[in-house]
Specification:
Elements: H1 13-20, E1 34-36, E2 39-41, H2 52-66, E3 70-71, H3 73-80, E4 85-89, H4 93-98, E5 100-101, E6 105-106, H5 114-120, E7 127-131, E8 136-137, H6 152-162, E9 168-171, E10 175-176, E11 184-185
Parallel strand pairs: 3-9, 4-6, 4-7, 7-9, 8-10
Antiparallel strand pairs: 1-2, 5-11
Length: about 190
């Protein structure tokens, strides 16, 4: 006989509002009720290495900054050719290897961390251009669509902003892959 398991997370609107504005009450429980195998637990789980309130605050700042740093296709192409500009591809290694913007460096989103950024992008003032799956239509293999709210550009931009990079620009439009002027690297497997 299987035991029914359920978990409920109830976050009060006041707690979420306070967290989003950088004023969380560390004593206030985030989890108000949880039931697992008939047992009730009413305590918050605290992990000082994970800060949802700071994430919400930084994401808000990053997205305000991002609103002034989105590029048209022509601007992206022009800026990508300028010396000192880094084009960053944060997709998976497999998708990057399949096809990527010519000249782009690869740093998979899960690998964006203190050490990897210090190694690959030590100058926080360097100009970085980002793009993701949701910038290209008609190339589902290398650029599979994500939900608009889960677009990799959003997470990448917020993460780079949080690490102190302020010279980040994002390719803005959804572009037909067959009509773009953006040049892509030919996968090694396609070479004769």
């Amino acid at each position: 006989m299987q035991t029914k398991r359920a978990v409920w997370l109830i976050v009060g609107a006041a707690s979420l509002h306070a967290a989003a504005h950088g004023a969380p009450d560390p004593e206030a429980p985030i989890v108000s009720q949880a039931t697992v195998s008939q047992a009730t637990v009413s305590q918050a789980i605290v992990n000082p290495a994970i800060d949802a309130a700071a994430y919400l605050r930084v994401a808000g700042e990053a997205f305000e900054h991002r609103s002034r740093h989105r590029l048209s296709e022509a601007e992206f192409i022009r800026m990508s050719r300028e010396p000192g500009t880094v084009v960053l591809d944060a997709r998976s290694k497999a998708k990057y290897d399949e096809l990527h913007v010519e000249g782009a460096i690869h740093l998979s989103f899960p690998d964006i961390a203190i050490e990897s950024l210090a190694t690959m992008l030590p100058d926080r003032s360097v100009r970085i251009l980002i793009y993701c799956n949701n910038n290209f239509r008609g190339a589902e293999g290398p650029f599979p669509s994500k939900l608009p709210s889960a677009s990799l550009n959003l997470a990448t931009y917020a993460a780079l902003y949080d690490y102190g990079y302020r010279n980040v620009y994002e390719l803005g439009p959804l572009i037909d892959f067959d009509k773009t002027g953006i040049v892509f690297a030919t996968p090694a497997s396609a070479l004769p």
